[in-house]
Design a protein that fits this description.
L,D-transpeptidase catalytic domain-like; 7 helices; globular; alpha+beta
């Protein structure tokens, strides 16, 4: 088992201990630097939206075409999220559409959550999403799906969502605080683009012969609309076909 896997496994275990996650993360110098440089700004951003850091829950939405990651937050117990900040994705790879196999350079699309933190990443700081999810395992190339897809710093990618080192310090800190408050899963939805009615129509028309893409985008569109209307997370059920039921 290599060093990276050992670190991720240990930190995943520690993340299950309420109130201990931040303490263990701050054993790493990059995390301590992030707190020294960004903590005051994080608190300010949350205070401006009436979100208390001691009650923090967050949600991330990524848009491949626009090259953006949105950070949404709410107080624990509230239904509606509030937009806190938008981060620029500074490098991309692949095309619009889901990731279906290892080595295709695709950034995944679909419904995910953060499943591991790496404070000693080769890409400064990184947070791994749980690709392949249930849908990816059904519709992708069996045994060759790839993995280790992350939101990270260092502004390089072959399928990840990179932001600058300066901004990953802040976003990583937000995620630490949410985990430390007891948020077991930080949801991450990755969209091909902002699925406004016009954008969705254009995508479906352009890729109408590629049913795998259109089916996924139809499910993502349903989730996009529900969140846009209510600012609360829809319930997503993974179906045996690889599609999703959105409620």
């Amino acid at each position: 088992m290599n060093k990276l896997v050992l670190i991720l496994t240990a930190l995943l275990f520690l993340s299950l201990m309420p109130g201990k996650f931040k303490e263990n993360q701050k054993r790493y110098s990059r995390v301590r630097t992030a707190y020294a440089e960004k903590e005051a700004g994080v608190i300010k951003l949350l205070t401006e939206k009436s979100v208390e850091i001691e009650k923090l829950e967050i949600y991330l939405r990524a848009f491949k075409y626009e090259k953006e990651i949105e950070l949404w937050a709410r107080n624990k117990g509230e239904k509606k999220f509030k937009l806190i900040k938008i981060y620029d994705v500074c490098r991309t790879s692949g095309r619009l559409g889901p990731k279906r196999k290892e080595g295709d350079f695709q950034i995944p699309e679909g419904f995910y959550h953060i499943d591991a933190f790496n404070p000693a990443s080769s890409y400064y700081l990184s947070m791994r999403i749980n690709y392949p999810n249930k849908s990816d395992r059904i519709l992708g190339y069996k045994q060759k799906l790839g993995g280790n897809i992350c939101i990270h710093g260092n502004c390089v990618t072959i399928g990840c969502l990179p932001i600058t080192d300066n901004e990953i310090k802040e976003l990583y800190l937000f995620c630490i605080e949410a985990k430390d408050c007891g948020q077991s899963n930080i949801p991450v939805t990755v969209y091909p683009a902002r699925l406004t009615n016009n954008n969705y129509k254009n995508l479906v028309e352009k890729y109408n012969s590629e049913k795998d893409k259109v089916n996924l985008w139809t499910d993502l569109k349903a989730a996009y609309d529900k969140f846009s209307e209510s600012k609360s997370l829809p319930t997503v059920t993974f179906l045996q076909s690889g599609r999703h039921e959105i409620k």
